[in-house]
Amino acid sequence: MLLFDLDGTLIDSNGVWLEVDKVFLARHGYEYSQEYHDGVAHSILRNCAIFTKNHFQMEESCEEIIAEWMELARNSYDTVPLKPHVREYLDRCKEAGHRMAIFTACVPEHCQAAVRNHGLDAYFERIIYAQELGEDKKSPAIFRQAAALLGVKPRECVFFDDSLTACKGAKAAGMTVVGIRDGYFTGAEADMRELCDQYISDFGELL
User: Could you tell me where the beta strands, DSSP code E, fall in the chain?
Assistant: First the structure.
């Protein structure tokens, strides 16, 4: 089973959320910082809102914060491009008869827009949302749960992701892990190379 992250792995979307974060914080009189980035990167939306509210001691509710983020990100996933060589790699895997699924922390609405616009539904038998499972993709337990939903064992999965924390969780669950370079998270590259079973700049290296 080949299990793919979406944001920063299959599609070049991490910049969308960087811009949303910066605009949102500026509206409320706060500055974007590395500490804030580390607190929200690769988390499900609910956990990002909880962190944001507590970090800045905001009066707005988590629901209001999320609603503003969704307004700022509206339609962004209609035009987000695929990462290099993604389609060629998926075509090869499909021709080889590999089972494939997406496991993402992306908002379902945004994920579905990107999948629809790029015709990716033809490749994947299922999309599993960390948001619906209620946890971030850093816990080994959520990876075991994702494997169970697909009817496989973690050791039968190869997981592709650009996030160091997600790769750690998948590795701890017993999955084979392929790290994907993303320009927004180059600071983690050395740790990704040490942790992952394989680390690639883009999917062209696997063709």
Answer: 2-4, 100-104, 126-129, 158-161, 176-180, 198-200
The count of other CB atoms within 10 Å of the CB of residue 81 is 12
The two tokens of residue 145 are 């749960």
Radius of gyration of the chain (CA): 17
Helices (DSSP H) in 41-124: which residue ranges? 45-56, 62-73, 86-95, 108-118
Main-chain dihedrals φ then ψ at residue 45, nearest 5 degrees: -60, -40
| Residue 74 amino acid letter | R
Q: 153-186 pLDDT, tens per residue?
A: 999 999 999 999 999 999 999 999 999 999 888 8
How many whole angstroms separate alpha carbon 146 and alpha carbon 61? 30
Q: What is the pTM of this model?
A: 0.93
